[in-house]
Design a protein that fits this description.
heterodimer; A: 270 residues; alpha/beta; Rossmann fold; six-stranded mixed beta sheet; three-stranded antiparallel beta sheet; 9 strands; B: 448 residues; mainly alpha; ABC transporter involved in vitamin B12 uptake, BtuC; Arc Repressor Mutant, subunit A; two-stranded antiparallel sheet; 19 helices
């Protein structure tokens, strides 16, 4: 199912409810400038998928568009066979660490407990059983003793572990993670990998944006090579080739940029 | 009563009491929401909205020809939402940052509102100055009877708004916290950050309107922002921050009115100052005091802490210098001048630290000269041993050149305890001499 360059027609079949994530013909544009184009791929259940691509390739945009955080110009997304809204309780999201304000007056336990808010629901208070569950997750990622520390007093790796613990308590079936390995220490990196593998062994699926090409084949079993469009996707040994990487990282889609620039020029001249 | 001491002889509970009550309710209502404005880094939106509600107010005045509250609230809430909406829209379309688009929106709406109010003032009993700057002094004049009490209308209105805001913060505490801290996860989990944003905006608009009689809709911004910002400096727990901001809001309101009456008397004037203005000044003062004295981040505390650190380092250096002189020669004593030139310390610090070391019994003075006591020598021995072990470690384990190790060892010797020295010894195979060839003193704890 390795599909180089153009998205093949086989992904046009909408994902059944056994397919954790099915994306078809997804395009996201910002001010008419396409950020990602014609994205189509299916993610098999129980896989660990690494999304790789250069800066500005639209990796975060892809994840956000999947979760309706940003509007799509076109395309369809199915999560376990349904639109995202209907199945969001089955999806866990780990945003980029820099996306939040770490000076916010909450402690590590508070952050992890937020992973349970979806289950708790509107207007209901957080109970002791929720805090206990959050504490357990902190133990699993190895920072239980830091539970009551204000989050700016955690190291980068510990902050990422808190985020991971928050994802764990969500107990989702599909996880979307935006660069969980960015700027973490070696011990944290190993802890994250262990947890990903353990998730996989329990039949969970994780889609992870990853920057370090060296470790991609070691950590993941599937890959999505992205540079504004899908260069290749599929099982690691089929798609993670020198040639595909060259296509992904060697030069941007200059023609696409030129044509959108030409469109803007014409609009301005009118 | 005690208030006389402040020079307040004209205090009347049925007059001043109501003014203070209105001020407290207004400050509390605003501070409740302000916590989340400050935490979402949108304090300026509070400013923008409280200005921009003006056309909503004016429209309600003109339409109903009265100062009836309900149409005013509806108008204000509508304009509040429009402000938030326009701000987002202009930012998207105009590609300018949020501050600039807010500036465009709220000044335009504010100006429009001013024009409308000046127009309306011809038909309705309405003074533009009161709307802008508040006139809490008039609070007790417009009253209704409630359960046998003669209660000012604005106190009732503010009471209701404060209660609504408190209920909002209590019931939506979890949602507010989540959507403020991590809007994207909050939204994907089903708690739309945008929805929370607009709920907050509506209540901010309503609060701004309710406050306009008491502090005016310009100064209410101080109540939205300053007490929560002060509380933020004092704690790192959200619930504590909210409670503290409420206490500070109340204190500001009380101080504001007392100050308005008392301060002019201190300077011999018979008139009093505007209460609303003094409330804002009080919050500002409290904030400044907090910046100076806050136990965590206070300027003063930081200064003292730095001083203590510098002095304890200097104390280490003094005993270290004397110890090394003892190693080299019999005449180990040193005058203050010698120490000063060796350690490059300022005269005041040196005098203080020398006095302290003598007080601790680590130094003894013979005339002009200082000498280590047994106790001081012990302290110095630990330091020098730490220093030389570090040098040895840096050369043998980290592979650094000899000429680059002194500065590091000099810094680290001050924080090296017995436990760390033992590990250094083990990792460097218990050396007898340091890389410069100087003997490393024995570990006192292991002597004999």
């Amino acid at each position: 199912m390795a599909s180089p360059s153009q998205p093949s027609t086989e992904v046009a079949i909408p994902g059944g409810d056994s397919v954790p994530l099915s994306v078809y013909d997804l395009t996201v544009a910002y001010h008419r400038k396409p950020v990602i184009w014609d994205i189509g791929f299916d993610v098999p259940a129980g896989s660990l998928v690494g999304i790789v691509g250069p800066n500005g390739a639209g990796k975060s945009t892809l994840l956000k568009a999947v979760m309706d955080l940003i509007p799509r110009a076109s395309g369809r997304v199915r999560v376990f066979g349904k639109p995202y809204r209907e199945n969001r309780h089955r999806v866990g999201y780990v945003p980029q660490r820099e996306s939040v304000d770490w000076d916010f007056p909450v402690d590590a336990l508070d952050v992890v407990t937020m992973g349970l808010y979806g289950k708790i629901g509107w207007l209901r208070p957080v109970g002791k059983q929720h805090r206990d569950a959050a504490m357990e997750a902190l133990e699993r990622v190895g920072i239980a003793e830091l539970a009551h520390r204000q989050i700016s007093q955690l190291s980068g790796g510990q902050q990422q572990r808190a985020f991971l613990a928050r994802a764990l308590v969500q107990d989702a079936d599909l996880y979307l993670m935006d660069e969980p390995f960015a700027a973490v220490d070696a011990a944290t990196e190993k802890a994250i990998v262990d947890i990903l593998r353990e998730m996989k062994s329990r039949g969970k699926t994780a889609i992870v944006i990853h920057h370090d090409l060296q470790t991609v084949p070691e950590y993941f079993d599937h890959a999505v090579l992205l540079n504004m469009r899908i260069v290749a996707h599929g099982p690691m040994d089929e798609v993670f080739t020198q040639e595909n990487l060259q296509k992904t990282y060697g030069g941007r889609l200059t023609l696409l940029e030129e044509v959108s620039e030409a469109m803007r020029r014409r609009e301005r001249s009118l | 009563m005690e208030l006389e001491l402040l020079g307040i002889s004209t205090w009347r509970w049925d007059f001043d009491g109501w003014i203070v009550a209105a001020g407290i309710l207004c400050a509390v209502a605003a501070a409740l929401l302000g916590n989340f404005l400050v935490l979402r880094r949108m304090s300026m939106l509070g400013d923008a909205i409280s200005h921009a509600v003006l056309p909503g107010l004016a429209a309600a005045f003109i339409y109903t020809s009265s100062r009836n509250s309900l149409p005013m609230f509806l108008g204000a809430a509508a304009v509040g939402i429009l402000t938030a909406f326009f701000t987002e829209w202009i930012r998207g379309v105009g590609k300018v940052d949020e501050g600039a688009s807010m500036g465009v929106v709220f000044t335009s709406l504010f100006a429009l509102g001013l024009v409308m109010i000046v127009q309306a003032a011809d038909h309705v009993d309405l003074d533009p100055d009161c709307v802008l700057y508040g006139s809490p002094e008039y609070t007790p004049m417009n009253t209704v009877f409630l359960a046998g009490w003669e209660v000012p209308i604005s106190v009732i209105t503010l009471g209701i708004v404060a209660t609504v805001n408190a209920a909002f913060v209590i019931f939506f505490y979890k949602e507010l916290k989540f959507s403020s801290f991590d809007p994207s996860l909050s939204t994907t989990t089903g708690f739309s950050a945008t929805l929370m944003h607009y709920m907050l905006v509506v209540l901010v608009a309503v609060t701004a309107v309710a406050s306009f009689e008491s502090v005016g809709n310009i100064l209410v911004v101080a109540m939205f922002v300053v007490p929560p910002a002060t509380a933020y400096l004092l704690t790192d727990r959200l619930a504590v921050m909210i409670l503290l901001s409420l206490v500070l809001a109340c204190v500001s309101a009380v101080l504001g009115h007392l100050g308005a009456i008392a301060v002019p008397r201190w300077f011999g004037f018979a008139s009093s100052l505007p209460t609303a203005g003094m409330m804002a000044v009080s919050t500002g003062l409290i904030f400044s005091l907090t910046v100076a004295f806050s136990p965590k981040q206070g300027v003063l505390v930081k200064f003292v802490r730095r001083r203590i650190l510098a002095w304890s380092t200097l104390a280490d250096d003094i005993v270290g210098v004397l110890y090394r002189r003892e190693e080299r020669s019999k005449d180990s004593r040193a005058t203050r001048e010698i120490l000063r030139s060796l350690l490059l310390a300022d005269a005041f610090s040196l005098r203080m630290v020398l006095r302290w070391l003598r007080f601790r019994g680590e130094l003894i003075r013979h005339g002009e000269r200082y000498e280590l006591t047994q106790q001081g020598r012990a302290r110095a021995q630990d330091l020098v041993r730490s220093h030389r072990l570090w040098e040895q470690y840096l050369v043998s384990q980290a592979g650094l050149d000899e000429d680059r190790i002194h500065d590091k060892a000099e810094k680290w010797e001050h924080v090296t305890d017995l436990e760390l020295r033992r590990r250094l010894r083990d990792e460097t195979n218990a050396p007898r001499i340091d890389p410069h060839g100087t003997p490393i003193p024995d570990e006192r704890a292991e002597a004999e």
